Amino acid sequence: MPTSSRSSFVRLWAPCVAMLLLSLLSYADRSVLAILSPTILADLHLNAQQYGYAVSVFSVCYMLANPVWGWWIDRKGVWITILAAVAVWSLASGSHALMVGLGGMCLARGVLGFGEGATFPAGLATVADTLPVEKRSFGLGLAYSGGSLGAALTPLLITPVAIRYGWRSTFYVTAVMGLLWIGLWVWLRASGLYPASAPAIALPVSQGKAGRWNRNLFATVSIYGLGCAPLAFGLYAAPLYLSRVLHVGQASLGHLLWVPPAGWEAGYLFWGKVADRRNARRAGPPGKLFAGLMVSGFLIVLAPLAATCARPILATMTIFFLQMFIAGGFVVLSLADGMNAQRKEHSGFLAGFAISCWAGVTGLLTPVLGHFFDQREFARGFWLIAVLPVAGVALWKLLRVRSVE
Length: 405
Prior knowledge:
The chain has helices at about 5-35, 35-45, 50-75, 80-95, 100-115, 120-130, 135-165, 165-190, 215-225, 230-245, 250-255, 260-280, 285-295, 305, 310-340, 345-375, 380-400.
C-alpha cells in the first residue's frame, strides 16, 4: 500500500479504533464484578437477588447518563466529553476494591454506570462524523465490538489475577487501564489522528428529517432496548448459571466466559456488513431481519435441556454463543436503521436514548433473573429473555415510518 494511501486509511479508521478501545475498556470494567460474582458474593455474604439489585443500580445510573452524555457530545464534541467520562468511571472502577457490603457495591456500581454512559453515544457520533454512509454500519460494529472483545478477554486476564492476588486487586488493575487509555486519547489528539470535532449546530426542522423527537426515534429505542435485552443475561447472569447448574468453579469460569462475548463480537461484524450492503442498495427498514432474529432468539429456552445432555458445557456454551450473536444483530441493525432515519447532528442523543432504554430493561430484568436463579427456576428466566425481543419488534413495527417530514 502506498504511503499516502496508508496514511489516509489510518486517518479514516483511527477514530473507530479509538472507540473500539473505549468500548473494550468499558466492558472490561463492568464485567469484572460479574466474572468474579461467585467469589465476591460468598466473601461479602450476599445472595443473587442482592447482586441483581447492585446491577440494577448500575443500570439505572447508566440509563439516566446515556442521553445526558449524548446530548453533551452533540454540543461539545466527543474528545473532551469522553475524557471526563473515562476519568470518572476509572475512579469508580478502582473503588470496587473497597467494597464491604451491598451499600458499597451499589455506590461503586452507580458511579461506574454514570461514567460509562458516555461510551456508546461517543461511538455512534464518531462513526457518523468520520465515515461515509456506505461504511458506517461496519464502522459502528467495529467501534462497538470492543465491548464484546473486552467481555471475552476479561475473564482470561482477570481470573488468574483474582486467584493469585485476591478479587480486590482486579479492580485496581481496571483503574490503571483507564489511566492508560486516557494517555492514549491525549496522544491521539496531539498527533492529529483524532482532531476535536466542532459542536453540532441545530438546523431548522424544515431542512430535512424531523427534529430530535419523532416516531422513528422511539422505534429505534424500542427495538434496541427490548431486542438487545438478552445481552443482560450473557453479561451478568451466565457466570451464576454455569456455577450453580453446571458446577463450574471460579478458575474454570475464566476459560468459558469468553464464549458468549465472542458470539456478540461475531454478530457485530457480520451484521454490520449485512447492514452496509443493505444501505448500498437502499433496501429500506430491516423488518424481515428483525423478525428472523426474534424467532431465532427462542433458542435460549433450550439451555435447560442442554444441561442434561452428554456434553452439557459444550451444548450450553454453543447456545450462549448463538444467543449473543443474535443480540449483536439487534444492536447493529437497530442503530444502523436509526442513523438512516435521523439527522446526523442528533446521533449522540439517538445512541444515548436507545442505550438508556436497554439499561432500564436490564435494571428491571436482572433482579428478576436473580430471583429465578435463587429459586432454581431457570427455565422461567430463559422464557422471559426470549419473549422480550418479541415486544421490541412489535413496537418497532408499530412506530417505524419510512420518512419523517
